[in-house]
Amino acid sequence: MITHQVELESTGVGTSCNLTLRTFGPPSGRKALYIQAALHAAEVPGLLVLQHFLAMLAELEESDRLLHRVTVATWANPIGMAQHLMGHLTGRFDLGGTGNFDRNFCDVRSEIGATFGTAEQRIPSTTELKSWLSNAALKFDSSLDPVHVLKRQLLAIGFEHDAVLDLHCDKTAMMHIYSSWDYQERAAALAQCMGAPILILEDEAGGGTFDQAFRDAWRKIKSLGISRDPAIGFAAVVELRGQRDVSDELAVADAAGLVDFLRSEGIARTDTSVSAGPAPAIVALNAIEHVAAPSAGVIAWKAACGQHVTRGAVIAEIAACDSEVPGRRTPIHASASGTLIARAHISLVTPGQRVAMIGGNEALPDRQSGKLLHD
Questions:
Q1: From which residue to which does the signal peptide run (predicted)?
Q2: Mean pLDDT within 282-296
């Protein structure tokens, strides 16, 4: 194992920020994988998963069963991890005003076109392409804002590898995975290894997330005919259930699932076959319905995550807590049939607040390609 510290821009006088990268396996030049956790800093299940995963990687490396390089960032967002506000960690948005930590990563597609889009251009090797992409991310702009520096560094690190995994979680949720139609087979294999029942796919989600910035760059390169390596460019987000699903039992199982994925990718070898679970249900991102609260009050759930609901079914009620005795209740109806994937974890809700996510089988008319992610 090699440990490397990446110094980041300080957020203030007397403070310092860094990323800690731990790299395992031989530098084969192929199938290198990068994994990070808690880019949304309050989504902490992945932090514990990676602790167990590091121990498993060390064992694989020691027994010469790791065939290619795996790099782990044990935390991806030291800035967000420091955002404790009145006893609560608030790590999805930058309190300094730059917005969602997992939005607006560098889009280097125009730079790729300008550099490699001419017929006279010599076709670079994969190693040269990865180095060029990493440098392009670092030099994308000159902003010294600590969050912009962090995003450039994370993407540059990702570009040094052939594939990336980003570990997140939802509020209260079943495990699910986001990836793209381009890599449906590999994403399904990841879901099976992790035991994720739902796989959500989309090529043009929008928003400029970390995984999309990585994937879009390689899609552009392949569209120019510069690289046709099918192993490179894969990216996925693993949603490790909900924010409260943090335990050694879950983390050990999830880390073992990551090891199974390494084996399915040919990154690691073991003496036993990959213990893949059942195939996931595949849902298009434009068939995901976000259900909003119709009024303010206390929410009482009538459906659990993982449950199939039909359109029009009451999935929750909101108690108004007003002057009437008992308080008025407003039903929340499922606006599409499908699986209740995630729901709010805080019970006091406001009008218009997104409180549930349902994965259906049909594209929804109000869902537009390129604008499919909420903040």
A1: none
A2: 96
